[in-house]
Amino acid sequence: QVQLAESGGGLVQSGGSLRLSCAASGSRFRPAVMGWYRQAPGKQRELVATITIDLSTNYADSVKGRFTISRDNAKDTVDLQMNSLKPEDTAVYYCFVDVYSYTGSYDRDWGQGTQVTVSS
């Protein structure tokens, strides 16, 4: 199992920025996919962004143009730069990784979550 350590959450005003970081440890192989989900009270869990080992990215429509996902393959870290934050971005953000498991597929591991609160 890969252990994920998240950091960077906090309280910001609308229009502000935060940078979330997630560091993976204990992975035998480079994670094939790294990314972020978020879940706000009363809303479904939402896939925010993903990035593959070859640096292909994908974003939820709600964050396109505002958020940027990146990864450092040498350090097994993934970051989420969040700009122009809105109150509707308020949620718990969860880092995840998909790692090759020798089963012909992948294992998914999760971070504990970090709270992002955007005030108006």
In words, what does this structure look like?
The protein has strands spanning 3-7, 10-13, 18-25, 33-39, 46-52, 57-59, 67-72, 77-82, 91-100, 106-110, 114-119. By secondary structure, it is mostly beta strands. The strands form two sheets. Strands 2, 4, 5, 6, 9, 10 and 11 form a seven-stranded mixed β-sheet that branches. The chain is elongated, with a radius of gyration of 14 Å.
Percent strand equals: over 45%
Q: From the helix content, strand content and strand pairing, which structural class follows? A: mainly beta
Major beta-sheet overview: 7 strands, mixed
- The unreliable regions are none
Q: Give the SSE order as H and E letters.
A: EEEEEEEEEEE
Taken from the alpha-carbon principal axes, the silhouette is elongated
Work out the radius of gyration. Answer: 14 Å
Count of strand segments = 11
Mean pLDDT: 95
Total of DSSP H or I helical runs spanning 4+ residues: 0
